[in-house]
Every structure is written in structure tokens, then in C-alpha cells.
Amino acid sequence: MALKDFLKEIDEEVKTVNSSEFEVEIIETNFVPSFSDPNITYDNLDTNKKKCKRLESCVLYVDIRGSAQISAERRPKTLAKMYSSFIRSMIACARYYGGHVRNIIGDRVMVVFDKANCFTDAVNTAVLMNSVCKHILNKQIKSFEFSAGIGIDYGKMLITKSGAIRQGNEKEFYRSLVWLGKPANVASRLTDLANKKESYSVRGVRQGVHYPLTDVWSWTDVHFEVFLGRLKETYSPKLIHEEEYFKCFYITDMGSYYSNNSPILMTKAVYDGYKSENPDSETVKNGWFSKKTIKVNDYDGDVYGGDVIKTAVESI
After folding, report:
1. 258, 281, 299 - which closes a domain
2. For the chain, how far is it from start to end, CA to CA, in angstroms?
3. Are the C-beta atoms of 38 and 164 separated by less than 8 Å?
4. CATH number (domain holding residue 134)
5. Rounded to the nearest 5°, which phi and psi values hold at 15?
6. Per the domain annotation, does 47 fall within a domain?
7. Cα(56)–Cα(115) distance, integer angstroms
């Protein structure tokens, strides 16, 4: 086929799919669908129809911290064993609480839960994964400190079949279930941030004090709140500082600070749902998951996190 004809064919297909005559049927569900679900179909250009499903539930991602560095430093056989151990373990943890693995890309595993009890199942899965990483994988894989990050969100996701129908050995590479919606994106971003050391700078005020008798300057850096608290109330343009010899100030960078994010991060919707389903659990009563000051792209709500483990795993 000539390139011009090839491009014309693609143009016609895109035009057909995006026309008003092309029907997209969305079926609501409370259960995680599989690829073979008859109610999720490819684009049918003969009937001008496509079927999708929509699920409102929890989605969880987990992956290895520092996997790029690990890949560069490890021998191929050791690397293969390590990744195999991680993926197998995370799949087992997901299945233990009824989760459905719906994507594996490199060292990142995606798990989706049926709607009923999804908050409890998702958080319990995260705790189990964290426990296995800390107390089993870390014990058995001794060449480095093994750690993983886990992120969870809740909401509506559109499940559609993408790709093309192909036959032969490569047909699996041309098709997939795609999970469209904010929850999958936010959960993935939380996973990127979980169990990572982050640096941040703090802005403050550098204030100068001049002692006229000795002609000596003294400079100190203070937070904005501290600086404002030392100013006396006035209704004039002139600042009145509690320090007699205060002369001047300017905004400054007070330096870099570091924080370690929790290995399990979740949105407020997930935490509230878990708390509602488990009001008497030790996790809730003891505040093992707490609010964190973490910024996530395209998400304005609170983030909760913790480093919770299953005590049964510690004895193994």
C-alpha cells in the first residue's frame, strides 16, 4: 500500500470513530472486568459501535524504589531473580485480599478492587505488600535494602479495550484494557512519591541588627511567622520591631530540608472510606495513617500516609 493510501485509510477510520453516528455504550459495573468481558469491545467500524464499562472503586499501584539504579548495578541473572520475586509477591498480596491485577509494566503492578469493601481490601493489600517488602524480600534479597512505594486512590474509571485484533505470536502486544480516569493517574503519582526522600527549601527573613556603640552588625534568619510576631502593632508605614537596634530585613532562602515520605500513600477519599468501614480498628484508633504535607499534580485534596505492617510477617 502506498503511503498516501495508508494515511487516507487512517484518516477515514479516525473520522468514523469520532463522528456522531459512532455509538459508545457505557455499562456501569461493581466488579473488575477482564479482557475477555463481552461488554468491552474494540471499535467496530462495521456497526459503528463500541462497548465500555465504568467502575467506581479503589485502584492501587506498587513499584520498587530506585529500580533504575538497581538495574544498572545488578548482574542479569540476579536482576531477573529479584524482579521475579517482587512481582510474584505483589501479585500474591493482591489476590489475598481479592484484588485483581490489571497491568504490569516493568516493576510497577496495578491492582483494582471490586466496589464492595474496596477501601478495606485496598488498604489491607497495601499494608501486606509493605510488610512483605520489609520482612521477606529484604531478608531474602540481601545485596541491598529493598523498598517499595504504594499509592491508592478511589473514583470512577472508564474501562475500554484498545489496540487492534491481530493473530499469531505477537497478538498479546497489540491489545490491552485501558483504565481511563483521574483515580488511576493520581494513584500512580502517589506511588512515584511514596517511600522517597524529598528535598525542599524554606523561605524566611534575614533580619539585621546594628549596635551603634560598637558599630557591629548581627544577622539572624527567622521564619516569616517569627518575624511578624516580633513586630509591634502600628498604624503608620514605619515598622516597629521589638529589638531596639533592628535596622533592616530581606527575604532569604533558609536552606534545604529533607523529608522521607511514607511507603503507603492514599487520597482522603480512600482514608475516609477505610475509616468508615473500620471505625474500631487499631489502625484508625492509633492514627497509624496521618495527614501528610505532600503535593500531587492534578490533585488538591489531603494525602494520608503511613508505614504500617502486619505483625504476623515480623515473626517469619
Report:
1. 258
2. 62
3. no
4. 3.30.70.1230
5. -60, -40
6. no
7. 7
**Residue-wise pLDDT tens digits, 206-255:** 999 999 999 999 999 999 899 999 999 888 888 889 999 999 999 998 87
52, 25 contact by CB (below 8 A): yes
Virtual torsion, Cα 219, 221, 223, 228, nearest 10 deg: 0
In a domain, 167, yes or no: yes
* Total tally of structural domains belonging to the chain: 2
- According to DSSP, residue 273 is labeled H
Residue numbers of the domain that contains 84: 55-196+265-314
Identify the DSSP state of 174.
Answer: G
Q: pTM of whole model > 0.85? A: no
The burial class, CB within 10 Å (0-12 / 13-18 / 19+), for 208 is middle
Q: Residue 272, exposed/middle/buried by CB under 10 A (0-12, 13-18, 19+)?
A: middle
Q: For cell 497491568, name the residue.
A: 103
Secondary structure of residue 13 in the 3-state scheme: helix
Q: Nearest 10 degrees: CA dihedral of 227, 228, 233, 234?
A: 90
Residue owning grid cell 501479585: 91
**What are the backbone dihedrals phi and psi of residue 72, each rounded to the nearest 5 degrees, phi first?**
-75, -30
